[in-house]
Design goal:
It is a single chain. The chain contains eight helices and 13 strands. With 328 residues, it is α+β, with helices and mostly antiparallel strands. The protein has one domain: Alpha-Beta Complex (Sulfite Oxidase, Chain A, domain 2). Strands 1, 4, 5, 8, 9, 10, 12 and 13 form an eight-stranded mixed sheet that branches. Strand 8 and strand 9 form a beta hairpin. It is globular and about 50 Å long.
């Protein structure tokens, strides 16, 4: 099984994130010194796996208390903290894979508020701590598949979005959930470019949003979410391509019609609203049949991509009446 419920009988009650790759960053003071030295000599490329991940300030790497294990975690080994925090897309901080870790260090994710609007009983503007406080946080070790045909395994810490939605009490008119990212040019240098129509926008059907796999992540590797990974709050939908995982969320809207989404607005023939991982439907410019797992080396063979990123048993019923070639 690719996904399993942890069992204390086989020792799997120990999180994979506590066994191997987490050792890369537990000794923070030494790691910080190494990162500062590396920063003086690192070039603009090759950030994946570099010690520059340690430039995340100590106060922003606080432990998240009372995390519980999830039955939905994969038993695959997670990528290292370095991989996850230095090789990622966050266009608000630049289009290169190493731009977010370089350009997001001075970003201030607190204080933070989330505005809820639309067809729901509980709307308004919520302080971040008040927004997440009623909920239990879980470690969800998920595969992440980028539309660019690379992948990772990430030990997220998050809250089931279904729990948040239930608390907000959407009405029967709410058929979709729309999200927006912070739009702050002073803190986000990538917003000065015209690569997308800002602010970044994403959306899910109500059925997708309330699926038990969908979470709002507030951390990874047991710690608060780094700036470059979408602090303080981001969406994680593991059966969809990574661009659906909108970061640094400031607005959630319950709407009746399918909301506009940033990449679909930019290139609708390449990036659909659904964006389900599907090895049988290629991107117009490259195959989606195989993927490169970050951290395995440049000469490692690519691995086959799984339908719905391997989460088919949990989500296939959502699309049983949908043509997945037309609704990509």
């Amino acid at each position: 099984m690719l996904i399993r419920k942890p069992s204390k009988l086989d020792g799997s009650d120990i999180r994979p994130s506590e066994i191997t790759s987490k050792a890369n960053y537990m000794n923070r003071r030494q790691f910080m010194e190494a990162g500062l030295k590396a920063g003086a000599i690192a070039g603009s490329a090759g950030f994946a796996g570099s010690a520059l991940a340690a430039v995340v300030p100590e106060e922003r790497r606080g432990k998240i208390p009372d995390i519980v294990d999830s039955e939905f975690s994969t038993d695959e080994a997670p990528n290292s903290y370095d991989d996850i925090t230095t090789y990622n897309n966050f266009y608000e901080f630049g289009t290169g894979k190493g731009d977010p870790v370089r350009n997001a260090q001075d970003f201030e994710p607190r204080p933070w508020t989330i505005t809820v609007e639309g067809h729901a009983a509980k709307t308004g503007t919520f302080d971040f701590d008040d927004f997440i406080k009623p909920h239990t946080v879980e470690e969800r070790i998920y595969r992440m598949r980028c539309v660019e045909a690379w992948s990772m395994v990430i030990p997220w810490v998050g809250i089931p979005l279904a729990d948040i939605i239930k608390r907000l009490e959407p009405t029967s008119k709410a058929r979709y959930v729309a999200f927006e990212t912070l739009n702050d040019r002073k803190q986000m240098p990538g917003l000065r470019s015209r690569v997308l129509d800002w602010p970044y926008r994403e959306g899910l059907t109500m059925e997708e949003a309330t699926n038990p796999l969908t979470i709002m992540a507030v951390g990874l590797y047991g710690e608060t979410l780094p700036n470059q990974n979408g602090a303080p709050l981001r969406l994680v939908v593991p059966w969809k391509y990574g661009f659906k995982g909108i970061k640094s969320i400031v607005k959630i809207s319950f709407v009746e019609k399918q909301p506009p989404t940033s990449w679909n607005m930019s290139a609708p023939h390449e990036y659909g609203f659904y964006a389900n991982v599907n090895p049988e439907v290629n991107h117009p410019r490259w195959s989606q049949a195989r993927e490169r797992r970050i951290g395995q080396g440049v000469f490692a063979p690519k691995q086959p991509t799984l339908m719905f990123n391997g989460y088919e048993e949990y989500v296939a019923d959502l699309y049983k009446d949908l043509d997945l070639r037309r609704n990509y």
